[in-house]
Amino acid sequence: MTEEYEIIQSEWDYRIVQDQSGKKKKIIRGIDYDTTWIKLGEGFAKRENEITFYNERKFSKIYKIIDFETFELIQSYNATTNYFKDKNNVYIDSYMNKDLQILEDANPKDFKILDIENGYSTSGKADYWYDVKIPFRLKDADNFGGSFYQKVGNQVFFSFVNKLNCDTDTFEIVDEREHHKTVFRDKNHIYHKGKILDGANPATFRFIENCINENLRPYYVNCDIHYYAKDDRYAYFVDSVNTIKRIKTKDVNGFNFQVVDGKGIAFDKEYEYHRGIRKKI
């Protein structure tokens, strides 16, 4: 091909070539050249012993498990969640996982995607959240306001598999305005991402209104994940998707929040706090 044609444009799945007379045409990878290459869709392709994503080699850690002949893409969502199957297994590649994962006990013959945007699927008598095999049925679970917490009977789970030792009757979200809904409480504790926030008082813990209320403050960097909160003893820097940092301020009553040059800054009588880090005023 390269002796007869000049390659004018090369993409992952086709080329534009030109012959000696100047005539151009499009040739398709897997048909006109590189004939062992098979397009799966959404940027994925395979050959006898390799899977690629836009020419980048993928999923090599489980090549010994994959049946390449029957391996196919089931469905893809925004390049962040991809379901595959072969004759033996169902697989998922998503932003929730580091590499291609096998869905435990999922049968490729009856596997169904229920909600690809939120990672829900089912097979036989089992339901899945991304690659997690859920220990109960989705229909029996009550999600707390679209959060990562689920109530099933008299039990509460975080991310479907981590059972909390909490007071189920009083378990609730602290503030619906927290974008990712990660901070909850019961009568005894504050919980973040399924873990108890040591020392926090659930009776007085609250997000600072000037921070959580979009009508009271302008936009600031990371305003959907970074917040400040306080109870009767401490202040807190809340990184919703990571951790909560306790701040030992001497002025918890005066501890407040403001936006300066697009940055969210908390303050008390002596200090400013940038992402929870104290700086002398």
Outline the structure in words.
The protein is mainly β and 281 residues long. Helices cover 1% and strands 42% of the residues. The chain is built from one helix and 31 strands. The chain has one helix at 209-212, and strands at 6-10, 14-18, 24-28, 38-41, 44-47, 50-53, 56-58, 72-77, 81-85, 90-94, 101-102, 112-115, 120-123, 126-129, 132-133, 142-143, 149-152, 155-158, 162-164, 172-173, 183-185, 190-192, 195-196, 206-207, 226-230, 235-239, 244-247, 256-260, 263-267, 271-274, 277-280. The radius of gyration is 26 Å and the shape is flat. The termini are far apart. The mean pLDDT is 95.
Radius of gyration: 26 Å
The number of helical elements comes to 1
How widely separated are the two ends? Answer: 70 Å
Structural class by helix and strand composition: mainly beta
Relative strand content: 35-45%
Number of strands: 31
Compute the average pLDDT: 95
For the sheet with most strands, the description reads: 4 strands, antiparallel
Architecture blueprint of SSEs:
Layout: E1 6-10, E2 14-18, E3 24-28, E4 38-41, E5 44-47, E6 50-53, E7 56-58, E8 72-77, E9 81-85, E10 90-94, E11 101-102, E12 112-115, E13 120-123, E14 126-129, E15 132-133, E16 142-143, E17 149-152, E18 155-158, E19 162-164, E20 172-173, E21 183-185, E22 190-192, E23 195-196, E24 206-207, H1 209-212, E25 226-230, E26 235-239, E27 244-247, E28 256-260, E29 263-267, E30 271-274, E31 277-280
Task: Identify the notable features of this structure and list them briefly.
31 strands, 1 helix, 4-stranded antiparallel sheet, mainly beta, 281 residues
